[in-house]
Fold this sequence. Notes:
alpha/beta, about 35% helix, binds ligand CA2
Amino acid sequence: MVESRHCHSPTAMKKILILNGPNLNLLGTREPAQYGYTTLADVETFCKAHGEKIGYAIECFQSNWEGALIDKIHEAGQAFKAGELLGVVINPGALTHTSIALHDAIKGVDPLPVIECHIFNVHAREAFRHHSWISPAAAGIVVGFGVDGYLVAIDGLVRKTVSSAATKKP
Ligand code: CA2
């Protein structure tokens, strides 16, 4: 069975989708020396609160299944086309370093803006974490700010998309 976690904001504001990949559901519950004590539910709560402050409805989804994340990206492409979604922040977990399928999914919904976000500075960790299949398809990348990085990524997405729309020639 494909397991996943959902949370929705019950508003008609434009949405931002936060996607989390494999094992991030363990955040704050296992290996706290490495990953800290903040849970994924905490992250989702403070992202939603921040979204409310800046006028966006934050939708969150976590799955340990690559295909479930790909389906969400495809859905996000449709919602973006319909003008309901500003963009996506994704922490793909270890799929970052392995998933050409996620890369293709993000490319496949271009121009949906996708910000890649990592809790750690992956470049300061093991060599196998230095390569990302997601980065070449991403509109921006946030690494190494801990769980605050999700907020940095949300703000970056808003600044990049809203200010670029405002400054585009007619
Ligand atoms: O820095 C990040 O956000 C990562 O995406 C985290 C992934 C890792 O594979 C990437 O290289 C970088 C790991 C997420 C696993 O999270 C856990 C949390 C608690 C206990 C075990 C795993």
